[in-house]
């Protein structure tokens, strides 16, 4: 059987041109196969069968090759579509316009079309990668700062950030940068606030001698154990704790300052009370100098420590023990001063009873001695005010007493029949008598004026005006009555004397005899008896009634040993003055 190489070649035709060598090789191989079959003696059926098989195998090879080419073409179309989709997607995500070449007008060459799009795709991929990296870095910083503010665990791996690759526009990038800038500013403010709080807490701790590191460690460990690269906590909770601790320390400082100021004032009072030496006071100068300070002005470390307060309390307690005896001494001293004030203005005071009451109060233990001393000071102030209000009246009382005493002296002087006897000192008595008469004439107006003033005082004060334990108005009334009685007695005495003189004159006229010469009052039987002034008796005077002395002796004594003639005639005033 002969082989038709032309049919074989026609059946194996392909759109692709076979090379000349390949065709020659195929024909030579068929001829060689035919020669082999001739030598073998294959029949035609076998030969046809084997040729058909060979043809089928060649077709299968071509078919597979075409299939692979078709698939590769589809892949190229898919790649081209993928490039187009990727360009559209990435450009959309980046928010950029991409100008593509007009490859769609090109015919039948997919690889060229892909090669045209490939640089654009690579450029977009690079831009996308850079944009994703930039956004992820910004979002990582944002997440870190937000975690610091929230107080949660910080994100330490940038790969934990998930970037939305569908939105990589410059607008989003700008918003993230703006947000990050705001967060950096917020972080800066928080760090400043944290630093300020820490500084304030450190200052407060130093002033009160507190453990600063322990306080800060309780607020947040980052303030004590700083790990490399880890900043101080700026979370809301940490700031709240810092603020709370600072306010608590400020309040504690204020309370301690008030306590120290109270102790300081107490020390000053005790030092002043007991006249403590300067050396003793200097030991607590650091306490007393804080009395006028505000909390903000107290900055010296340790000035408000517990040790300072305890030492000051011990000193105050020690001084209070000494204060008791000193206060008792001062209280009785004030009582003596009060008694002197009352005595000086003739006010009644029961000294023994008052001192007994004070002693009972001090020994009972239920009365604060400082309050009692303050009460005594108040009594002294009131007593001085009351004494001042009585001063004008008392001055007039002294004038009235002096006038009354002079009146009593004048009465005795006028009863003395030897008052005109010649002798040394007589002229002094005559002058005193003249002054006494002028003063006595003013007694009614003095009493009237004094009565009016006492009544006005009693009306204003609402209490009776006492003088030496007696109501003074009643004393004035008794004095006026007594004085009227004395005037009446003098009047009757003068009338009686006038009557006696008249009877004596009548007897002399009838019988021609003279009455016997009476011995002058106070004259001795001896011829050389000295002339004396009337005794200053206090009967009927205010001093006698009140049982107190007038303060000076108003008696003048004439000590001239002179014989008093019976027919003594009063010398002229000018001579007596000599």
Structural class: mainly alpha
How does the overall form come out from the CA principal axes? rod-shaped
| Strand and helix order | HHHHHHHHHHHHHHEEHHH
Question: Low-confidence parts lasting 5 or more residues at pLDDT below 50?
Answer: 1-18, 517-540, 546-578
First-last Cα distance: 214 Å
Spatially, the strands of the biggest sheet line up as 1-2
Word description of this protein:
With 578 residues, the protein is mostly helical. 69% of the residues lie in helices and 1% in strands. The protein contains 17 helices and 2 strands. It has helices at 5-11, 20-40, 44-94, 110-150, 170-208, 212-219, 236-274, 278-282, 285-288, 306-344, 351-364, 369-415, 426-440, 443-461, 472-511, 542-546, 573-577; strands at residues 466-467, 470-471. Strands 1-2 form a two-stranded antiparallel ribbon. A hairpin with a 2-residue loop joins strand 1 (466-467) and strand 2. The protein is rod-shaped, with a radius of gyration of 70 Å.
What structural keywords apply?
mainly alpha, 1% strand, rod-shaped, 2 strands, 578 residues, 17 helices, disordered N terminus
Concise synopsis of the structure shown:
69% of the residues lie in helices and 1% in strands.
Q: How are the elements arranged and paired?
A:
Elements: H1 5-11, H2 20-40, H3 44-94, H4 110-150, H5 170-208, H6 212-219, H7 236-274, H8 278-282, H9 285-288, H10 306-344, H11 351-364, H12 369-415, H13 426-440, H14 443-461, E1 466-467, E2 470-471, H15 472-511, H16 542-546, H17 573-577
Antiparallel strand pairs: 1-2
Helix pairs in contact: 3-4, 4-5, 5-7, 7-10, 10-11, 10-12, 12-13, 12-14, 14-15
């Amino acid at each position: 059987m002969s082989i038709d190489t032309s049919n074989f070649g026609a059946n194996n035709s392909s759109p692709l041109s076979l090379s000349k060598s390949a065709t020659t090789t195929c024909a030579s191989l068929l001829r060689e196969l035919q020669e082999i079959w001739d030598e073998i003696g294959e029949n035609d059926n076998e030969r046809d069968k084997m040729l058909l098989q060979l043809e089928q195998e060649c077709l299968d090879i071509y078919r597979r090759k075409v299939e692979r080419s078709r698939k590769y073409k589809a892949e190229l179309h898919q790649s081209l579509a993928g490039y187009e989709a990727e360009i559209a997607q990435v450009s959309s995500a980046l928010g950029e316009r991409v100008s593509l070449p007009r490859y769609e007008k090109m015919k039948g060459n997919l690889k060229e079309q892909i090669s045209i799009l490939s640089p654009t795709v690579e450029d977009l991929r690079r831009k996308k990668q850079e944009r994703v990296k930039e956004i992820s870095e910004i979002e990582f910083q944002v997440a870190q700062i937000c975690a610091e503010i929230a107080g949660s665990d910080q994100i330490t791996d940038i790969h934990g950030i998930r970037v939305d690759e569908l939105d990589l526009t410059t607008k989003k990038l700008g918003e993230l940068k703006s947000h990050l800038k705001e967060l950096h500013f917020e972080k800066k403010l928080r760090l400043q606030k944290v630093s300020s709080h820490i500084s304030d807490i450190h200052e407060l701790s130093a002033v009160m001698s507190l453990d600063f590191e322990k306080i800060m460690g309780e607020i947040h460990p980052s303030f004590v154990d700083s790990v490399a690269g880890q900043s101080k906590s700026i979370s809301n909770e940490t700031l709240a704790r810092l603020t709370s601790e600072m306010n608590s320390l400020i309040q504690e400082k204020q309370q301690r300052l008030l306590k120290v100021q109270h102790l300081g004032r107490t020390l000053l009072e005790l030092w002043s009370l007991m006249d403590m030496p300067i050396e003793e006071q200097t030991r607590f100068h650091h306490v007393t100098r804080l009395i006028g300070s505000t909390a903000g002005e107290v900055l010296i470390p340790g000035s408000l420590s517990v040790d300072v307060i305890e030492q000051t309390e011990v000193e105050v307690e020690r001084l209070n023990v000494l204060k008791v005896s000193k206060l008792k001494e001062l209280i009785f001293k004030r009582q003596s001063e009060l008694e002197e004030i009352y005595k000086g203005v003739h006010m009644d005071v029961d000294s023994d009873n008052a001192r007994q009451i004070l002693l009972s109060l001090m020994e009972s233990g239920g009365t604060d001695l400082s309050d009692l001393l303050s009460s005594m000071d108040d009594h002294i102030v009131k007593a001085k005010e009351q004494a001042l209000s009585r001063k004008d009246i008392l001055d007039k009382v002294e004038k009235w007493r002096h006038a009354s005493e002079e009146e009593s002296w004048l009465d005795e002087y006028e009863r003395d029949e030897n008052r005109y006897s010649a002798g040394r000192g007589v002229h002094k008595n005559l002058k005193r008598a003249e002054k006494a008469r002028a003063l006595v004439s003013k007694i009614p107006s003095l009493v009237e004026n004094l009565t009016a003033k006492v009544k006005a005082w009693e009306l204003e004060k609402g209490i009776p005006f006492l003088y030496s334990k007696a109501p003074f108005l009643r004393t004035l009334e008794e004095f006026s009555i007594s004085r009227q009685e004395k005037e009446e007695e003098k009047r009757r005495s003068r009338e009686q004397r006038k009557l006696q003189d008249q009877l004596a004159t009548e007897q002399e006229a009838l019988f021609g005899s003279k009455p016997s010469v009476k011995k002058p009052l106070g004259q001795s039987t001896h011829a050389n008896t000295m002339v004396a002034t009337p005794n200053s008796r206090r009967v009927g005077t205010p001093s006698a009634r009140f049982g107190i002395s007038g303060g000076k002796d108003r008696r003048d004594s004439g000590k001239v040993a002179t014989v008093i003639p019976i027919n003594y005639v009063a010398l002229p005033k000018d001579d007596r003055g000599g």
